[in-house]
């Protein structure tokens, strides 16, 4: 009889230990689950911030300074050119550019063109956990003559600097690959350009 009681005690003790271990395991999983949820919630606090905003005239004067993110140049670019090229003033496919001494860009009438905005994003704006995210940058254009209001531009990456200090991108509007044209003596104005970062 004593042996039977001892066996029952041992069995109950084992059952209690098993239940305790199970409860602790469930509690640990619960804590881990909520920690993961909190991480996701922290991620959701990121949002779009305007790095630079202005008209084409303002863009002509834009100079973010060494290493800073911002607008580098706005080009009027021959339709069909290479968006991933590191465009500079005077390139063959560059029909014109906004600069301090040329805020009005002359384009021959009936010539198809795209608008390209060259930007630089720095590590604060588009680098997370040692990884560059070009999707953390965008450019939006308002151009009423072409019925564009805060239109998000297409993106092409130019360079991810090996020194890990910046990311160069071209953002462009190309009118569904056919480009924009002006008739003889026609003028047009790009009212607003926004360069934004997601952090």
Topology of helices and strands:
Layout: H1 2-43, E1 48-54, H2 56-60, E2 70-78, E3 94-97, E4 113-122, H3 123-126, E5 127-128, E6 131-132, E7 137-143, E8 148-152, E9 154-160, E10 166-173, E11 192-198
3D structure, described in words:
26% of the residues lie in helices and 34% in strands. The protein is α+β, with helices and mostly antiparallel strands. The strands form three sheets. Strands 3-2-4-10-9 form a five-stranded antiparallel β-sheet. A four-stranded antiparallel β-sheet has the order 1-11-7-8. The longest helix is centred in the first third of the chain and has 42 residues, at 2-43. The model is unreliable at 26-41 (pLDDT under 50).
Q: Helix and strand string, N-terminal first?
A: HEHEEEHEEEEEEE
Radius of gyration: 29 Å
Beta strand count? 11
**Percent of residues in helices:** 25-40%
- Count the domains: 2
Brief digest:
By secondary structure, this protein is of the alpha+beta class.
Which properties best describe this structure?
five-stranded antiparallel sheet, elongated, alpha+beta, 2 domains, 11 strands, 199 residues
């Amino acid at each position: 009889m004593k042996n039977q009681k001892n066996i029952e005690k041992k069995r109950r003790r084992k059952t209690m230990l098993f239940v305790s271990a199970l409860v602790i395991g469930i509690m640990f999983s619960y804590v881990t689950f909520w920690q993961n949820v909190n991480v996701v919630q922290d991620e959701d606090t990121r949002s779009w911030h305007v790095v630079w905003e202005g008209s084409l005239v303002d863009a002509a004067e834009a100079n973010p300074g060494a290493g800073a993110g911002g607008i580098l140049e706005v080009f009027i670019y021959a339709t069909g050119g290479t968006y991933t090229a590191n465009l500079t003033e005077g390139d063959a496919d560059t029909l014109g550019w906004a600069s301090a001494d040329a805020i009005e860009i002359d384009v021959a009438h009936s010539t198809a063109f795209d608008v390209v905005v060259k930007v630089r994003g720095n590590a604060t704006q588009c680098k997370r956990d040692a990884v560059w995210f070009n999707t953390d940058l965008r450019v939006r254009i308002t151009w009423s003559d072409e019925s564009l209001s805060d239109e998000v531009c297409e993106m092409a990456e130019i360079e991810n600097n090996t020194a890990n200090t910046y990311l160069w991108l071209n953002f462009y509007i190309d009118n569904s690959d056919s480009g924009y044209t002006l008739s003889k003596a026609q003028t047009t104005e790009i009212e607003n350009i926004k360069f934004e970062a997601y952090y």
